[in-house]
Each structure stands twice: as structure tokens, then as C-alpha cells.
Amino acid sequence: MINKLWAFLIISGSLYLIINGKFEILNKQILGSGKVTLDLLFQIFPLIALWLGIMNIAKRAGLLDKFSKLIEPFLRILFPKIPRNHESFDYISSNIIANVFGLGNAATPFGIKAMESMQKLNDNKEEASTSMITFLIMNTCGFTLIPTTIISLRMLHKSKSPTSIVLPCIIVSFISLVFGLIVDRLWAKK
Amino acid sequence: MSNLFIPLIVLFVIIYGFFKKINIYDAFIEGVIDSFSMIMKMFPSLLAMILAVNIFKSSKIIDYVFSFLKPLFLLLKIPFEVLPIAVMRPLSGSFGLALLNNIYGIYGPDSYISFLSSVIQGSSDTTIYIITLYFGTVGIKKIKHALWVGLLADLFMVIMSLIIVPFLF
């Protein structure tokens, strides 16, 4: 799927640019993508480094276990195939907690750790397990209490109430999260 | 308010760790070392995705393909400006943010168009990027229904925004 999507984006985009004679733009995009990627990684790297440091303190002090325990009853319903007390739950709950509080970039390391630990439980290492899919749906729905970047962009544009979008975002993303989880469950049973 | 959120977490974690009598300094250093391997693992799939997305979005193929939808948007009284945000939301977060920046500049941050666009941008995440990154990092090739459910939820999110936002604006 990723294979096909990747091919589709590159082929359709390139052909369209070539037909319209915009070789220069295409050339710039191809040659520049490495630098764009590196810039992006450099932008998020300091935050990931800092956050992994702080969160390692929380982990060693047993704080993450406490948060995990709080939301684990819900997670156990959503991930019936992960054994009780498995480390996956710690990473999944840390990822969710980071996302909910608008720390999107900080959530990514936990997300990757969660995927790695779910991969250990996976029978077929090339095929996604149902737990992995459920976890990614929870991520892609982007349920958050604080959409930080949008709030800061609104402040930049001198909005009278930068946080007015927060409540509608919570409502809409929560509804789509529930929708996503239901569709995921029905689809997995097929 | 949200400016205080991160400092409070940091402070809380450090105070908590300190009184739990663990070596917080060593724990911090150990955590930071972990971040290097993480970045190294993220680079390949991120590069692959940025290459594809940048070619695709610079071609402006979306504007062309969806121009036939304009009368429909007019009929339903939906601002056409929200379409590129809705379509590109699953692909690239920075693209949506750039568009949002334009819309705020033209219509003002407190206008209806800006409000609706913000909710669409803020109520989902970069579905395709997340799926590529996470599955790519652990070497999954068959992703089964993950992408379809993710995109379906995104479509549902846009429809819900269009229904709910007029009541909350």
C-alpha cells in the first residue's frame, strides 16, 4: 500500500509538472527534499532529546507506570491481544498522554517504542497486527486537548480569542476517534 | 495557559524523581542518548515521504482535479478554501499550517473561513505520514486496513466539522 501510494504521488506529480513545462520546480523539489528532511529532523531532534531525557526520569521514578495504570483499563478493552502488564501498554499510554496534551513531537518516540514492542508480539513480522492498526488509528485521529501550533499561529495573527477553536477541535476529533475505532473493530472482524 | 503546561510537567517530573531518591541526572543523560538512534531510524522513511509529498503538492494537481467541485461547494455554502486543507491534512501537517497562515492573512484569524479551517486542521493528524513512519520503522510491509480506516475517519472528521462548526462559531 505504501509502495503504491509512494509511486502514485511521485509519478502523478512529476508527470503533471513535466507536461506543464515546470522542470525547474520538479528539479528543485527532488534535489531539495533531503535538506527539507534534515531541517525537519533537526527541528524536532532537540525536543525529542530533551523530552526523552525528562521522560526517562519519569520512567525511572515510576511515574509512567502510574499514568499507565490510570488509562490501562480502557486500553485493555481496545487492545485485547496484548498480554496484561506487557511493556506495550506503557508506551501506548505515554504516547496517548503526550498527544492529548499537545506534545505531538514528544509523542513520536513513545509511538515508535510502542510499535517496536508490539512487533515483538507479532507472529508475521511483515504484516501489521490488529493491535498496531488500532494504535495507529488512535494516533491518526489526533485527539488532543491543546492544538498548540494552531493556537500559536492564531496568536501570531493577533486573534481576539486564540483558544476559541479548542472546544470545537476536542468535540470533532473525539467523535472521529470513536468513529475510527468502531470502523477499525468492524473491519478487523471481517 | 498552555505556555505553562510544559514547564509544569518538567518541574513535576524532576521534583517527583528527586523525592523518589533516584539519580535524576543519570536518568536524564540516559534518555537523551536514546534519542540519537531514534532520529537515525526516522530519517529514511521521512525522506521518502517528503520527497513524494513535495513533488505532489508543488504540482498543484489537487487544484486542477478538484476544480469541478467548485459549484457543489457554492451550493452547500462551504468555502472552497477549506478543500485543499481537508485533502492535504492526512499528508502533511506543515502544508496545512502554511495554508492556514495564508487564510488568516486574507480573511483575518477570527473569520468563519479561518475558524472552520482551523478546526479541520486541528481535529486530525497527518494520517499518511504517521502510518508510513510507524510501520516503516518496524519493517511492516502489509498494512492491511490501517490506511483506509484512517482516511475514512479523516473524511468523517471533515464532515463533522462542516456540520458542527456553524453552531459553535
Percent helix of chain A: over 70%
Summarize the biggest pleated sheet of chain B. none
Helix content estimate of chain B: over 70%
* Mean pLDDT across all amino acids of chain B: 86
Number of strands of chain A: 0
User: How many structural domains can be distinguished in the coordinates of chain A?
Assistant: 1
Shape of chain A: globular
Low-confidence regions of chain A: none
Distance linking N and C termini of chain B: 22 Å
The termini of chain A sit apart by 19 Å
In sequence order, what are the helices and strands of chain A, one letter per element?
A: HHHHHHHH
Class by alpha and beta content of chain A: mainly alpha
Radius of gyration of chain B: 21 Å
Radius of gyration of chain A: 20 Å
Structural class of chain B: mainly alpha
Mean pLDDT reading of chain A: 86
Task: List the keywords.
heterodimer; A: mainly alpha; 0% strand; B: 169 residues; mainly alpha; 9 helices
Structure overview:
The complex is a heterodimer of chains A (190) and B (169). Chain A has 190 residues and is an all-alpha fold. Chain A has one domain. Chain A is 78% helix and 0% strand. Chain A contains eight helices and no strands. In chain A, helix 4 (87-100) packs antiparallel against helix 5 (104-121) and helix 6 packs antiparallel against helix 8 (166-189). The mean pLDDT of chain B is 86. Chain B is built from nine helices and no strands. The longest helix of chain B is centred in the N-terminal third of the chain and has 35 residues, at 24-58. In chain B, helix 5 packs antiparallel against helix 6 (93-107), helix 6 runs antiparallel to helix 7 (112-122) and helix 7 (112-122) runs antiparallel to helix 9 (146-168). Chain B has a domain at 60-168. In chain B, 78% of the residues lie in helices and 0% in strands. Chain B has helices at 2-19, 24-58, 61-65, 70-75, 82-88, 93-107, 112-122, 127-138, 146-168. At the A-B interface, helix 1, helix 2, helix 5, helix 6 and helix 7 of A face helix 1, helix 2, helix 6, helix 7 and helix 8 of B.
